[in-house]
Specification:
32% of the residues lie in helices and 22% in strands. It contains eleven helices and 16 strands. The strands form three sheets. Strands 1, 2, 3, 4, 5, 6, 14, 15 and 16 form a nine-stranded mixed β-sheet that branches. By secondary structure, the chain is an alpha+beta fold. Helix 9 packs across helix 11. The model has no long low-confidence stretch (mean pLDDT 97). Bound molecules: glyoxylic acid (GLV) and manganese (II) ion (MN) (2 copies). One manganese (II) ion binds next to loops.
């Protein structure tokens, strides 16, 4: 590919962010860690270079503002997250920060100001990798941050509140960055699709119709640890066997209903020794569907079944909800504007729902939201194999710039 207007620099920036990791072996950059700070400082440098004023806000987000000609006009907000899952790819979230950065750098180079300001946010905690609860950064901006989240702890037992303190932020003031209703005209997020639909359809870009709601639960099953050699099979209170049944039930219950998906991604066995009957298991449950009622019905069945399994095996169970979000539609006018921006690049497009959660959904109580999806190779995401085509990056950024330059408030 010849030298590009956007993609070469963007891919180099994405590679650079992809190297800021808590582990030398894989990409993991979680909330309120030194790597969080390093990545945000780097993005802040790039924002300033692109003509933006930068703030590191009360929730740990990095926010760049490219002023418009009318200081009173509501701003157009864009951005995505800079945190990652464990063993992550380098495009999930980061593309949605680096692409608007390239758009604003282009406007700056041309000396062009729009009637409204553009705010670019690098959100601090979309994934919830460290504490379980997702979206702390975007919830704070939306004015929906729940102080109860501060009590959630990481694997080392450090609470989110203490981690905020250690990061140099006041946990009592996380919500201070909430935007006033009416101050943000819309939020538009560009994100890799994280699924195979666009690639299958031979399309670089798609327009998101709605973002699925999700619930995340933590289940703790307690039995009785004992000697692996002496306790007869019929007399055990093995916590792991109950968890195994529960995991299988989740698969069965979530299979066959369109858009319903259930995942157990974390399972810990205690004490975790080869010759000890597991006395405790702790596991995560993530259940999602395009419709909240479908998801909630599945969760009710899963809880009932886990209780029944534990009663039958004479085990104790405690299930706590870590996170819940509702299914969120994108604004029709923003869908149309995104479609027009893609078509202006000479590309066909399609509409599709998002099964993954996104900061955009969290911002819906604040302003109309929209999303553009970009194809990723084989639909793989949350995996270091995550890959994109440079020509898709180029055209996605051109479409986003078209959207920004032609944006008209929708309400
Ligand atoms: C975020 O990637 C989520 O959907 O869990
Ligand atoms: Mn993700
Ligand atoms: Mn993401």
């Amino acid at each position: 590919m010849a030298a590009t207007r956007f993609a070469d620099r963007m891919l180099a920036q994405l590679d650079e962010l992809g190297r800021i990791s808590e582990s030398p072996d894989f990409l993991q950059r979680t909330f309120l860690t030194p790597e969080h700070r390093t990545a945000h400082l780097r993005v802040a440098d790039w924002m300033r270079e692109a003509g933006m004023e930068v703030e590191h806000d009360s929730a740990g987000n990095v926010v760049g503002r490219y002023a418009g000609t009318d200081p009173d006009a509501p701003a157009l907000m864009t951005g995505s997250h800079l945190d990652t899952v464990r063993n992550a790819g380098k495009y999930d979230g980061m593309l949605g920060v680096i692409a608007p950065l390239a758009c604003i750098a282009d406007l700056h180079k041309r000396g062009k100001r729009l009637p409204f300001a553009i705010e670019l946010v690098g959100f601090a905690n979309e994934e919830g990798t460290r504490f379980g609860a997702s979206m702390a950064g975007s919830r704070a901006v939306a004015g929906t941050f729940d102080g109860a989240m501060l009590k959630q702890t990481d694997k080392q037992g450090v609470s989110m509140g203490d981690a905020y303190q250690a990061f140099g932020l006041d946990p009592a003031k996380v919500g201070a960055c909430a935007r006033k209703p009416g101050s943000i005209a819309a939020f538009m997020e560009l994100h890799i699709e994280q699924g195979p639909v666009l690639e299958h359809e031979g399309l670089a870009l798609g327009v998101v119709t709605a973002i699925s709601g999700a619930k995340r639960l933590r289940a703790e099953i307690t039995g009785l640890a004992g000697h692996a050699g002496t306790v007869p099979m019929g007399q055990r209170q093995d916590a792991l066997l109950a968890a195994a049944e529960a995991v299988q039930y989740i698969e069965t219950r979530c299979t066959g209903t369109p858009t319903l998906v259930g995942t157990v991604g974390v399972l810990e066995t205690l004490p975790g020794a080869m010759n000890v009957i597991p006395g405790k298991t702790i596991f995560s449950i993530d259940i999602r569907a395009a419709e909240d009622s479908v998801r909630d019905a599945a969760i009710a069945d899963v809880l009932k079944e886990i209780k029944a399994i534990c009663a039958r095996r004479k085990l104790e169970v405690r299930i706590t909800e870590l996170y819940a979000s509702t299914s969120t539609p994108c604004h029709p006018a923003l869908m149309e504007a995104a479609e027009a921006a893609i078509k202006a690049q000479g590309l066909p497009t399609m509409r599709l729902p998002s099964g993954a959660g996104h900061d955009a959904a969290t911002l819906a109580p604040l302003c109309p939201i929209g999303m553009i999806f970009m194809r990723c190779t084989r639909g793989i995401s949350h995996n270091p194999l995550e890959a994109v085509l440079p020509e898709d990056v180029e055209v996605a950024t051109a479409a986003l710039l078209h959207f920004i330059e032609n944006f008209k408030p929708v309400q």
